[in-house]
Amino acid sequence: MRYEITIDGKNHGLELERKQQGWQCLLDGREVQIDAVRTGPDSISLLLAGKSYEIMRERRPPDTYLWVGNRGYAVEVRDPRSLGARKKKPGDETGWRKLVASMPGKVVRVLVSEKGKVEAGQGIVVVEAMKMQNEIKSPKKGIVQKLIAAEGANVNAGDVLAIVE
Amino acid sequence: MFKKILIANRGEIAVRVIRACRELGILSVAVFSEADRASLHVRHADEAYPIGPSAAAESYLNIAKVLDAAQRSGADAIHPGYGFLSENAKFARACADAGIKFIGPSASSIEVMGSKTRARQEMEKAGVPFVPGTSRGLESPEQAEQVAAKIGYPVMLKAAAGGGGKGMRLVHTREQLRPALEEARSEAQRAFGDAEVYLEKALVRPRHIEMQVLADEHGNTVYLGERECSIQRRHQKVLEESPSPMVDPDLRRRMGEVAVRVAKAAGYSNAGTVEFLVEQPKNFYFLEMNTRLQVEHPVTELPTGLDLVHLQIRIAAGEKLPFAQNEVVIRGHAIECRIYAEDPDNHYYPSPGKITLLREPSGPGIRHDTGIYEGWSVPIEYDPLLAKLIGFGADRPQAIARLSRALGEYFVGGIKTNLSLFERILNDRDFQAGNVDTGFLDRLLQVPPAGREPGDAKIAAIAAGLFAALDSSTSPPSHLAPGSNGGNGPGNSSESSHWKRAARTEALS
Fold first, then answer.
1. What is the pTM of this model?
2. φ, ψ for residue B117 (rounded to 5)?
3. Are B238 and B296 within 8 A, CB to CB?
4. CB B411 to CB A103 under 8 A?
5. Which domains, from first to last, does chain A contain?
6. Domain limits for position B49
7. Cβ contact (<8 Å) for B464 and A41?
8. CA distance B295 to chain A (A)
9. A-contacting residues of B 441-470, CB under 8 Å?
10. What is the reported pLDDT for B46?
11. In a domain, B488, yes or no
12. How far is CA B44 from CA B174, B222, B234, B295, in A?
């Protein structure tokens, strides 16, 4: 089985074949001796030339992170044969800018109204979580074209709160 | 002794108090908001009662609802934990009126210490040293300018009802004073409903060191040694230790005696903490008294061998202190890390959510006081403190080594935590040398974290492929078996996996 793996933006080619005893593993064309045991749904114990690693998988949709010791890596795995192999397209947002919640929480205040003019850096929405208030500011000077956030609404990190043009 | 204690709190501290109750043979009663039905403290307690919606103001801060739960359950005492109603004199009084013992000091002691200016006035009378400045609220900007000119800049403006850094302003020059005073006043008004602001001299690179005191209701008061709490971010403690690397027996005795004098001046009983600012040449000044059990109480418990919650309960039940000052012995060193649900890579913003994977540390010299479990969702409504990890050793280097080792074992998946921050602190040369002050963490955080070794990314790549390969096969060889059912129970073994296996075989051929 061949995988294309992106770790923190860098691509690796990995070939894995299950053998009678363990695995045959080629990383970027070079053979690596590995001994792997799954220790849980999201953990693997890996022995690499005698060195022992415990790897934890953290799924935080849409992203997946792998932790080696206490270091986390954002990973993307593509199976080239699968139809799902895809590349992320960078957003095409000329003129439009989205205001995104940087943490999950509750919208406690909306400081502007739809179609209102805003300056760059002007506060638009206040989100509160765990007793901390975070003011989301406008990234540019313009007009609030759409105000999605409503006072009292719960939001997740990454949710679009408003669109400024 | 009490038969049943209600714990008017949640999270790790509620679990901590419930454990003490069980050890003493006392029944425990939890209370919970809608967001906390599945919380650990509810699972640990003997009884549990709902007290309303998720918002703290409508549940954990609602005196009537907490007292109603106490009466329904037949509890004869209430432990308030820290935060919420723990320093609320009205609540202490309402407990007394309802015939339920409040495990803490009297309402009048809470009142004296609840106002920083009133506390300063009392301490002035008792001859306790405090940071030079006003002991009453500022009357006018002119008065502020006069006092600041007399004691010298920089000065600190502080809210009388303050806490957590709100209503606080550091002022370096005369020009900054008036606008800063305006800001501090309006911030204090918004945060505490009280615009009273006082002024004191800003110390240069002070340490924040506090003294644990314990007083029974028969006039006996002792001190149990200090805690070094200088490692703070935005005036919030992050890591505490005891003893402090800079406090020698003589300074400890002097600070301890002043702390006892403070407690006596306030007519104090039960556990309390006297906070001091300490300047480099070992001058110390009274800052405030916290009239409750502190978050960081475990770092006092380990070196003294005392259980503060047991003692709180016994004192509240009318017992005398079971030891005298000269019987308090400090042996070993303890350090506590406060594990918060916050994102170190994104301005330490809160990071609530579901804990998908949890590995908890254990082993020699490790204590883990926690309020979380795997599969539980950390609610957005409350404080981000998840757990406290405490390392204990014969001396400071051993405590650091054990804590570092345990941090390596600790893993929380699904939400972000500040675990990586502690690795940085413990590895820091100044920290290891004991050179810390309240600006330590800000300086450390200005330096970007060290880069990672390139070798690890390759291991992550191999593991990523292994997870993909293992997930696509549902009947792995026996040596890969544990946990391969994904915790979904025995239900998914037969039909669906045959399907997948067939599909996979076909795809391979």
1. 0.85
2. -70, -40
3. no
4. no
5. 2-78 (3.30.700.30), 97-164 (2.40.50.100)
6. 4-103
7. no
8. 17
9. 452, 456-470
10. 98
11. no
12. 55, 32, 33, 19
Do the chains contact at B382 and A130, CB–CB below 8 Å?
yes
Tell me how far CA of residue B467 lies from CA of A80, B319, B488, in angstroms. 16, 59, 17
When the pLDDT of each residue in chain B is averaged and rounded to a whole number, the result is 91
Confidence band for A82, pLDDT divided at 50, 70 and 90: low
Model confidence band, residue B496 (pLDDT cutoffs 50, 70, 90): very low
- What is the CA angle A125-A121-A154, rounded to 5? 15
Q: Counting one residue from A and one from B, how many pairs have CB atoms under 8 Å apart?
A: 162
B354–chain A Cβ distance below 8 A for any pair: no
**B120 assigned to some structural domain:** no
Give the span between the Cα atoms of A157 and B210, in whole angstroms.
38
Residues B291-338: tens digit of each pLDDT: 999 999 999 999 999 999 999 999 999 999 999 999 999 999 999 999
| Pairwise CB contact (< 8 Å): B382 & A131 | yes
Same domain, B197 and B215: no
Q: How many CA atoms does the CB half-sphere of A62 hold within 13 Å?
A: 4
Does residue B48 sit at the A interface (CB-CB below 8 Å)? no
Q: What angle do CA B319, B325, B326 make, to 5 degrees?
A: 130
CA nearest A26 in B: which residue? B462
Over A125-153, what HEC string results? EEEEECCEEEEEECCCCEEEEEECCCCCC
Residue with tokens 């790790």: B12
| Active centre residues of B (catalytic) | 292
Residues B218 and B334 reside in one and the same domain = yes
